[in-house]
Each structure stands twice: as C-alpha cells, then as structure tokens.
Amino acid sequence: MGRNNSTARLSLFACINSARIILLVLLCYSVMAVTSLGVVKTSLPSYRRSLQTSLTSSLQPSWWGSCDASNLPYDSAFRVLVKYHEKYGDLVIPRRFIVPATNEWPTEWHGVKLARQVYNRKWWTKHIAKNNDRVSQLNKIGFVWERLQPEWNLFMEAMVTYRSIYGDVMVKATFVVPRDNDEWSKGCWDLPLGNVVHRLRLRHDFLTGDTAIERKNQLDGLGFVWDVSEYNFKKFLTALRIFSKLEQEEHEHMIMPSTIRVPSNFVVPSDDYRWPIILWNYRLGEKCTAVRQKQLYVKGNRLRQQALEEIGFRWSGNATLGWLDVVHAAAIYSQMHGRVLNPPLQFVVPSPPTPDSELDGSWPWPERLWGLKLGQRLKDVRVKGAYLKGPDAHIRKAQLDNLGFVWTPKRGRRKRS
For the chain, percent helix, then strand, then coil, each to nearest 5? Predict the structure, then answer.
C-alpha cells in the first residue's frame, strides 16, 4: 500500500514538474524582457528566492507543504541545505519556503517547508545535539543557530532591536526585518515583523495558554501599543496641551484667550527639551487641520471631541480665529472713534509707549492684537469679501454694521486718526 502511494506521488510530481517548467520558462522570458528595459532593480538572488517561494506554494496538492521530514536521515537534510546554500548564498531560509519538486533538489524533500523542519528543536535534538562533527559541517555552510529558538523568542528579540533603533515599538504593518544588517540578529532577518504585530493585536497570536499573561507583561514592558487609534489621539492631545502651556508662559503678563491657535505649518521643534523627545518633529499644525476637516481620531467619538473642546480646541479653524481678532480690534477702534469704523489703510494696532501703560490698565489694546494690520484687513473685507464667505457671512456683516463700518469710504485725502 505504501509503495503504491509513493508511485502515485511520483506520477503526480511528474505532472506538476511539467507544468512548472513551462511556467518557469515563460516567467524567465518575461523577466529577461523587463530587465533589458532597466525596470527590474531587485537583486537576482532575492528575486529568485521570492519567485521560488511563490511558485512552490501555488498549484500544488493539498498535502503540499505539510510533509514531515523529521525522520529523514541527517545526510539527506545536509544535502538539501547544501543545495539551498549553493543556490541562494546563505541559510537564512524564508519561513514560507517550500522545497521545489525539481531534479536539482533531493526527491524526498519535495514539498517540505524547509525552515520549519531544520530550524526546529526536535530536529536538532534528534540529529545534531550529540554529534559535534555535524555542528562543524553546518557551521561551514552558515547554519543560523539562532533560528532554533521558539518563534516567540525571535519575535521579542526583533521587537527589542526595533525599539533600540527607532525609540518605540510602533511597527508599521509593512515592516520586514532587513537582511545583511548587523544591527539585527541573523535569526530575525526577513521576519515580517509588522505583520506579526498586526496579527498579535487583531488575533492575539502567541497570547494563548499558560504563558499568555507573562508574554503580555513582556510586551507592556516594551511599551507595546494595543490600541493604535487611542495612542495616536493621546499623542495629539498631549502635544496640544504642551503647545497651549508654552504659549501661556511666553505671554505670562497678559490674559490669553482660552482658544488654542496652532499655525497650520507648525512642527514641534527637535532639540527643544520643553517637548518630550517622542514629539520632536511632530506635525501638530497638519494634525489640527486633519482633525477639523477629516475628523481624524474623533469621528463618531464624542468623548474625544469633548476632551479637545475642554482644552480650547476650536473646530472652526484658524480662519475663524483670525476673524475674532479682527472684530475685537474693530470693536475697540469703533469705541475710540465715536462708533465709526473707518481706519486708514496704514493703521496697525499699536503697542503701548511704555511697559507700565499696559500693566496699569490704561492701554486699551490687548497684547495679542499688537501689530495687527487692521486697516489692511478691513480693506480686504471691502474689496475682496475677506471673512464674508460661508454660513456665517451675514452674521459678520451685521457685526460690522453695528460697529459703524464704512463700506464705501469717501475718496480723496483724509485726516490721520
């Protein structure tokens, strides 16, 4: 019965091989054509490795990739490892690599996930542990001993390395541990770390059984982020609070408005230790715009919206805040000029002539309005309709009318105010 099964498998291999050879020939011609045009820039060994992995995992029978080769003789395993080393230059075998069913590979290894079989404590115990000469043989072809660790250990090693390089463990979903990089253990090369992190958050991979709590504590110790959305929102909220605090400190002699005004191009400066290092180069201005226009972090989350409003975040943006400055200055000017609002074009809100003037309350203009080009702003209202667009246009026109705004000033020279 076993002999009949072997014969059937060999027949099936022959059919598969014929189809694969035709496919490989066609692919080779395609690659040669594209390469001649200068399009392919990937190194040939890496391309061959990834191509072979994808080919061997498709169009195969259901048992393909699930073969158990642990009972095969060591000499057979050594031959397949030597062949892999000859073909690809190392033994950093991708986890998905399946030995192709071609004549260049030992027949008994066809359809086997090579890394799973040889980088396995069971295989090491059975074939290597008590044979020092085999250790020497494997060393000569670059056997990666670190890969004998459990996958959890390799994952944690990669996470620790990532944190030491990048300062956190916010691994992008597309991140793969690079090859030929001495910063990373060779056992971690080609590990799709971002994908593993994503699956860990989504499906709690590795976090089942008796070790679940211990492993979760290990991740927490690294600063692992379980809820990325909440983490990003808290980072944004922290940046807003620090920005507001620093603004208050810089204007400690005046009453600052409760509204936070972040310029749209503001980026947290680096090497400024008033800010946490994790926020250096954070594009706070862009984030504010995205929160207002695209509901970033807060869409459908009223609690987050309230948290922002409580610290003075305005949903209307800096354009509305600019109007508030203009109408505030206009109200003061109107009151000082008998309810007439018609400043000359060159009028700029003045600062006090002496420092004591503002402190004793005799100076009418608040510090945040000093330097505001009120004359130019109001000309823009007349000529360009500045601030008078959108749903609040009629309210703003009424505010100006109540302040005695002159929409069509008289021509000719005028007296200085």
Answer: 55, 0, 45
Contacts of 207 (CB under 8 A, 6+ apart): 200, 215, 216
**Residue 173 in contact with residue 202, Cβ under 8 Å?**
no
Distance in angstroms (rounded) separating the CA atoms of residues 404 and 331:
9
Q: What is the DSSP letter of 277?
A: G
404: left (phi over 0), alpha (psi -120 to 50) or beta: left
Coil vs helix vs strand at 253: coil
Contact (CB, 8 A) for 311 and 241: yes
C-beta of residue 61 within 8 angstroms of C-beta of residue 13: no
pLDDT tens, position by position, 336-391: 999 999 999 999 999 888 766 555 567 888 877 888 889 998 998 999 888 888 77
The burial of 99, by beta-carbon neighbours within 10 Å (0-12 exposed, 13-18 middle, 19 or more buried), is given as: buried
Compute the half-sphere exposure of residue 148: CA atoms within 13 Å on the CB side of its CA. Answer: 11
Whether the Cβ atoms of residue 261 and residue 254 lie closer than 8 Å to each other: no
pLDDT, position 319: 60
Shortest CA distance to 289 belongs to which of 312, 248, 318?
Answer: 318
Of 106, 12, 96, 105, nearest to 56 by C-alpha is 96
Q: What is the CA radius of gyration of the chain?
A: 35
Any residues with CB less than 8 A from the CB of 120 and at least 6 apart, and which? 70, 148
Task: Give 156's contacts (C-beta < 8 A, 6+ positions apart).
Answer: 218
Give the separation between CA 305 and CA 295, rounded to whole angstroms.
9
Q: Whole-model pTM above 0.70? A: no
Task: Report DSSP letters for 78-103, one per residue.
Answer: HHHHHHHHHHHSS----TT-B--SST
343 and 333 Cβ atoms separated by less than 8 Å: yes
CA atoms of 296 and 272, how far apart (whole Å): 27
